[in-house]
Amino acid sequence: MKYFIAANWKMNKTIGETRDFLKSFIPMVKELRDVDIVVAPPFTALSAAAEEMKGSNVLLSSQDVFWEEKGAYTGEVAPAMLVDAGCRHVIVGHSERRQYFHEDDQVVNKKIKAVLKAGLGVIFCCGESLEEREGGKTFDVIRREVEQGLAGVDPDNLVVAYEPIWAIGTGKTATVDQAQEVHAFIRNVLSGLYGSRAGEIRILYGGSVTPENVDSLMACKDVNGALVGGASLKPESFVKIVSFKKES
Ligand code: PGA
Q: Residue 90: what are its φ and ψ, rounded to 5°?
């Protein structure tokens, strides 16, 4: 399975900073063929990023979307507009959207369906909080998010990202064993939904991924890539992450 590594820039970088990053990053990764490399800038920088990425092996993603096709939804962006801006993927269900913008599993499900209908790929995020982990609820939360978020969703064009909320932006990475345990569990839930097709769905790990810990995380059997926030903001650091060494 081809690895999939995506940069989630969150609310960082102007248009100029996006162009500067890509002008330096793209030449450094042009020989990498065994990994899908994806960058998700803020909405305002998408078109400029698409111009910089033209003819390269780096693909564009947005960080969010609205599920309606058009109309009176002030401030929102439709899937077809993201296609128009040059996107190939959309991140849906990130814990920051769930926490700060009150997106629940039903909203996430509607967004995923709209994204796939527009012909875009989905990077669907799930993950438990520290309180849920300490309360022994990790597997219940993950099962609920995956089953409800993906209800009625076709798995073509679907990538799942496991992001334990306690590991996002905190410098506390899940251990290799913690990551593998939940990834295997997600694979199992996906098998319940999709049967043998679950084996083809890439499951990314996200939460304080760095050049230092990426090799060991990518060596886990059910970890097929990464979703990277903080360590994706500098070209040199993100280059090291997408060029991880496969440990055998
Ligand atoms: P982080 O963010 O790498 O800064 O922890 C990951 C994410 O939220 O996607």
A: -140, 135
Which residue out of 52, 94, 128, 132 is catalytically annotated?
A: 94
How high does pLDDT run on average in the chain? 97
Residue 5 Cβ inside 6 Å of ligand 1? The answer reads no
- Mean pLDDT score, 83-98: 98
Q: Answer yes or no: is pLDDT of 172 > 90.
A: no
Atom number, ligand 1, closest to the C-alpha of residue 209:
3
Q: Are 122 and 93 in contact (CB under 8 A)?
A: no
Q: Is 94 a catalytic residue?
A: yes
Measured distance CA(66)–CA(78) in Å, rounded? 5
159's tokens: 């990538």
Helix (H, G, I), strand (E, B) or coil at 167: helix
In terms of Cα–Cα distance, which of 160, 206, 215 is closest to 186? 160
The class (CATH top level) of 3-242 is: alpha beta
Closest protein CA for atom 3 of ligand 1: 229
Are the CB atoms for 167 and 174 separated by under 8 Å?
yes
What local confidence, expressed as pLDDT, does residue 248 receive?
A: 60
In DSSP notation, 21-57 reads HHHHHHHHHTT--SEEEEEE--GGGHHHHHHHHTTSS
- Do 52 and 19 touch, CB atoms closer than 8 A? yes
Dihedral sign, Cα of residue 68, residue 72, residue 73, residue 76? positive
Query: What is the pTM (predicted TM-score) of this model?
Result: 0.97
Helix ranges restricted to H, the chain? 15-29, 46-53, 79-84, 95-100, 105-117, 130-134, 138-149, 176-194, 214-218, 235-242
